[in-house]
Design goal:
Blueprint (H helix, E strand, L loop, with lengths): L2 E12 L9 E11 L3 H15 L1 H4 L10 E10 L11 E4 L4
Antiparallel strand pairs: 1-2, 1-3, 2-4
Length: about 100
């Protein structure tokens, strides 16, 4: 089964998650998945991120709307790396 590297981007997460009571935050993260197609890879990668950051996606909403997750890039790669990805690089969207 093909292996995909999926770069995801999150937006509109409340500052309380980062000890900033007023700001909004986004993040970038990468996941590696085995999938039958790029569409299947997108579904699997989003599922992994939502499971890892369930506490953040459970926010009822912010003044900017509900937190969102989008795909920036999906690339088919040769082999599955030992690490399948995890964590995220967070950034302030107020400064972006």
């Amino acid at each position: 089964m093909p292996v995909y590297q999926v770069l995801l981007e999150g937006h509109d997460f409340p500052g309380e998650l980062m000890d900033d009571q007023s700001g909004k935050y986004g993040f970038f993260t990468t996941r590696f998945v085995r999938a039958t197609s790029p569409t299947d890879a997108e579904f699997k990668a989003k599922k992994l991120v939502r499971a890892e950051f369930d506490w953040a996606f459970s926010c009822v909403g912010t003044p900017w709307g509900r937190p969102s997750l989008t795909i920036d890039e999906i690339t088919e790669i040769e082999t599955m790396p030992e690490s399948r990805g995890g964590g995220a690089s967070w950034f302030s969207e107020d400064e972006a």
